[in-house]
Amino acid sequence: MHTSKTVFITGGAGFIGSALVCLLLRETDWRVINIDALTYAGNLESLADVIDHPRHLFSRTDINNRAALDALFREYQPAGVIHLAAESHVDRSIHGPGEFIKTNIEGTYTLLEATRAWWSTLDSQAKAAFRFHHVSTDEVFGSLGTSGFFTEDSPYQPNSPYSASKAASDHLVRAWHHTYGLPTLITNCSNNYGPRQFPEKLIPLMLLNALGGKPLPIYGQGDNVRDWLYVDDHARALHRVFAHGLPGEIYAIGGHNEKTNLEVVDTLCALLDELQPRADGRSYREQKTFVADRPGHDRRYAIDAGKIGRELGWQPQENFTSGLKKTVRWYLDHPEWTAHVISGEYRHWLDKNYGART
Predict the structure, then answer these.
(1) What's the order of all strands across the beta sheet hosting 31-36?
(2) Is 163 contained in some domain?
(3) Exposed (0-12), middle (13-18) or buried (19+): which is 143, by Cβ within 10 Å?
(4) Which of 8, 55, 93, 307 is the most buried (most CB within 10 A)?
């Protein structure tokens, strides 16, 4: 795709979205229109370094607001959309699935329709160059046994309200390509980790609990396996797919880092023992505690990322040890970010620092 263009990023104040926004502003000359409703996990403090960048414009807009989306398309005339806006936490989906249906399914439908309406007005060359890139998860494929990998051809078997809502949105995107010809791309990624992740997720939760002297709650026996992908590696993959992927294609993105939850916690504790030892000299591992497993907890996820490597030349740059060390150091070096999230102060950052420019 050509440079010097405008791209919409939905969910650009979230964990993965903010990493992608920063990467695009750093490594391309694209103008980024950042569209985010700023629900609890949307945090403009994660964009503090680029919030006033001349090629970054932020719009506090819900993807279910069709009139607002239409206005954004008319005003900024994008050459593509990268859609990350989603409710994403499995535990929250178990206790309150309604928001997941509203955002992940209805919101994706509304965004697809607004995009299709804009795309249909373009000339043939601009239509062919346009991309709608939908960012999804490996959780739509269900649970693996002790061997094998998810691929782009794996059957859908979602087991939680979250993964079911993401599976539904994948199917909508696929249908809009095959029915209407909208040039779509879908990526399914493994578990992300890295700086600025909202502390309901495993790694930041364990890190902050450890530093706070709290228990480290591990589901079941801690033997559930995930493939861990460093967030900046994921952002590089999204850029590569959006710029060079073929319309209608699906690309699986994984970090090649399978770890049990117990291995993740033990590795994290060892890093903290090294980088910020406990005052009493004992190991953070002593704070581990095992709790009842969550309902429908998938046993193992693992991705075969061979296709994106062969066809688009992407490979992760971080292994789990290097990525986790960078992550721990970032949290240790940015206690104010963490404090604002825990206290809820980050919610007021918009009003104090960004004012009416939303």
Answers:
(1) 56-60, 31-36, 6-10, 80-83, 131-137, 184-189, 250-253
(2) yes
(3) middle
(4) 8
Question: For residue 201, what pLDDT band results from cuts at 50, 70 and 90?
Answer: confident
Mind listing the pLDDT tens digit for each residue in 50-73? 999 999 999 999 999 999 999 999
Number of domains within the chain: 1
Domain-embedded: residue 292: no
Percentage of residues in the chain with pLDDT exceeding 70?
94
Averaged confidence pLDDT in the chain: 92
* Model-wide pTM > 0.85: yes
Whether residue 343 is contained in a domain is answered as no
Nearest-angstrom CA–CA distance, 303 and 312: 16
Residues known to be catalytic: 138-139, 162
Residue 293 lies in a domain: no
Q: How far is CA 173 from CA 113, 127, 178, 238, 340, in A?
A: 10, 17, 9, 16, 36
pLDDT for 349 beyond 70: no
Q: Where are the alpha helices (DSSP H) in the chain?
A: 15-27, 66-76, 90-95, 98-100, 108-119, 124-129, 161-180, 202-211, 231-244, 261-275, 306-312, 320-333, 335-343, 349-353
CA atoms 245, 248, 252, 253: torsion sign: positive
**What pLDDT sits at residue 348?**
52
Q: How confident is the model at residue 113 (pLDDT cuts 50, 70, 90)?
A: very high
Q: What is the β-pairing status of strands 184-189 and 250-253? A: parallel
Give the number of residues written for the chain: 358
Structural domain for 78, as ranges: 6-198+227-258+299-320
What CATH number should be reported for the domain holding residue 313? 3.40.50.720
SS3 state of residue 258: strand
Q: What is the pLDDT of residue 345?
A: 61
Q: What CA–CA distance (Å, rounded) separates 134 from 262?
A: 31
- At 46 the three-state DSSP class reads helix
Mean pLDDT of 304-310: 97
Q: Could you give the CA distance from residue 24 to residue 102 in angstroms, rounded to a whole number? A: 29
Backbone φ, ψ for residue 289 (5° rounding): -145, 145
